Amino acid sequence: MKKRLLKMLGSVVLVATLIVGGFLLYITLTDYNPGIIEELSVDNNNERMLKLNEPFTITTFNIGYAGLDKDQDFFMDGGTMSRSNSEEQTKINLAAIASFMTTLRSDLFMMQEVDVRSSRSYHVDEVTYLSSELSEYSHVFATNYKVPWVPVPILDPMGSVDSGLLTLSRFKSTDNSRYNLPGKESWPRQQLDLDRAFVESRFPVDNGKELVLVNLHLSAFDQGGTIRKQQLDYLSSFMKREHDQGNYLILGGDWNHVLPGTDPQTFKTTQTWPEWLQQFPEGFTPEGFSWVIDPNVPSVRTLDIPYSEGVNFRAVIDGFLISPNIKLNIIQGHDLSFKHSDHNPVTAELVLQ
Prior knowledge:
CATH topology of the largest domain: Deoxyribonuclease I, Chain A
Largest sheet: 7 strands, mixed
CATH superfamily of the largest domain: Endonuclease/exonuclease/phosphatase
Distance between the termini: 85 Å
Shape: globular
Strand content: 25-35%
CATH class of the largest domain: Alpha Beta
Structural class: alpha+beta
Radius of gyration: 21 Å
Helix content: 10-25%
CATH architecture of the largest domain: 4-Layer Sandwich
């Protein structure tokens, strides 16, 4: 009897080992491995050109795959959930996001966490939906999270993920590229994690120069912030190179740092400072560049619990960094009370000088 039990136990261990080993081999062989720089196609490119001294508007919005509405939490932030509440709720959130965008009508939209076909958003193609709702805009999409199956949390796994960055524009672009950001997690965690990147879009200006637009989403949960430092160093070199060429630069998106000139303690909360959130490092901002942020409207909330006004910790981590040859007219964070996303959008009116 004892031998039989030991044999059964050995068989169970062997089967479990084969399953885990097979899964690790599968995610390693199918790992999304983009090049350092990849050219992106643009759909519905416009002919309108950016003009000197003519104001234009730009909005950044991390839509949380239209699944992280006010009633949601997220397991990576200390909660338990990994997916949208339902396909119906995903579509409700996405429709509300699109309605906000069509009403606002910014000239440029920089969006993060937009799913193409993911279990967490019930396979709703959010890129197609948003580009259809804003049909007068060109759109460029770059993948930054593509995994065949994320097996955590064990009881309710995130599942398949295909997601990325979406840039919408009412101006003519001449080049769009995906830049792979440095810094990777160790195996096999990296095989289940995002491949961080930014979308570079180049827009000709009527004075012969170019506006270089960077849509980014930096790392958040890297231990000690070492990966974030590598990403910021890479961005610093990129900015210097483009600025030395006399171009206009706008970097915007989800920086996953407390942005300079903002203080999370401004916003009422009963929670403590979350471990993942770091202050922006001193010395990063190039000389003459300016941060374009609204310090009075939080752009992100914690996800360990559903949203409750005055309870969740909030901060400003979404905004823009602009070169010295760009003037700020207006900056506005939109307080949407995190109803349909865990982020609030931010809009700026800018002028090329």
